[in-house]
Amino acid sequence: MNWIKIDEAAKMTGITKRAIRYYEEIGLIQPPERSDGQVRLYTEEDIEQLKRVVDAKEVLGFSLQELQHFLSIKGRVLEHKVQYETSRDKTFKQSELEEIAAGLKEQRDMLEEKMEKMKSFQNELKDLIQKVESLLKV
Amino acid sequence: MNWIKIDEAAKMTGITKRAIRYYEEIGLIQPPERSDGQVRLYTEEDIEQLKRVVDAKEVLGFSLQELQHFLSIKGRVLEHKVQYETSRDKTFKQSELEEIAAGLKEQRDMLEEKMEKMKSFQNELKDLIQKVESLLKV
DNA sequence: AGTTACGTTGACGTTAACGTAATCATAAAT
DNA sequence: ATTTATGATTACGTTAACGTCAACGTAACT
């Protein structure tokens, strides 16, 4: 397999090595494999996961805590899904699922609102650019 | 005029009094009027400005510094525009304007990228919601 | 007029998200 | 076989964005 060390991982994701270790420390990403000498070894998949975490943080403005919450919810939902599909085993609690669904919908609506506001800001920006360019074209 | 004190201002904007004073302290908003007794008195317009600052911070994830930068650029552009329209006075420096335009365009592109990523996250969310609901509908 | 509520200015405290430096072990290059 | 580079751990430092508390003045209610 093509193992990736932390320095390259940092370059691939655009964050620092410290940040990567920190994310691992607070449980935001899975601890990767280790070599004999204790060296962290990442797979391509690990890197993809990291990138998605970074995106979510930087783009969505989620705090790392919020991200953790979301990721754990996602994990649990997918688990349940698999359980259901394979064994028809309804081990989940109905009320719990309903709670999860409510939380997700709230997130979805908040995102929607954010995007609306971004659009209006985007328009303001474009307007400003127009003004500046009209000043330049004289 | 209908003056608004800081406590009501806080309630209207959804942030704390401390945050409002802090924003004033770092120059993010204009210091409002004061009564004789040194009491801060805000106008409706002040509140609107505050709301927009809060939005930009929370929605766009701008740091207060970035916001300051943007607001100052905006102010200067509008100044120039007015100058130009009224006096045909080309007191601005061409190079400076070009720099500003470049900066704004960069912001615009970054926003575009952010919105794209938000959309894909939005889709992921909707997908998860679907999955949860399908689990519920059994 | 007295009490209660609200406002003001310091000033120190707090938390998240890392930065940085020291010290030691291992891996790579020469 | 040494340098040299890279990685790990530990621990203290830093910055932004406020929170909180103290001490005080002023408004508002009764």
How would you describe what is shown here?
Two copies of one chain form a homodimer. With 138 residues, chain A is mostly helical. Chain A has a domain at 96-138. Chain A contains five helices and two strands. In chain A, strands 1-2 form a two-stranded antiparallel sheet. In chain A, strand 1 (33-34) and strand 2 (40-41) form a beta hairpin. The longest helix of chain A has 43 residues, at 94-136. The mean pLDDT of chain A is 87. The A-B interface holds A 55-56, 58-61, 73-74, 77-78, 80-81, 84, 90, 92, 94, 97-98, 100-101, 104-105, 107-108, 111-115, 117-119, 121-122, 125-126, 128-129, 131-133, 135-136, 138 and B 55-56, 58-61, 73-74, 77-78, 80-81, 84, 90, 92, 94, 97-98, 100-101, 104-105, 107-108, 111-115, 117-119, 121-122, 125-126, 128-129, 131-133, 135-136, 138. Chain A binds a DNA duplex (30 and 30 nucleotides) through residues 5-7, 16-19, 21-22, 26, 35-40, 63-65. Chains A, B: This is MerR family transcriptional regulator.
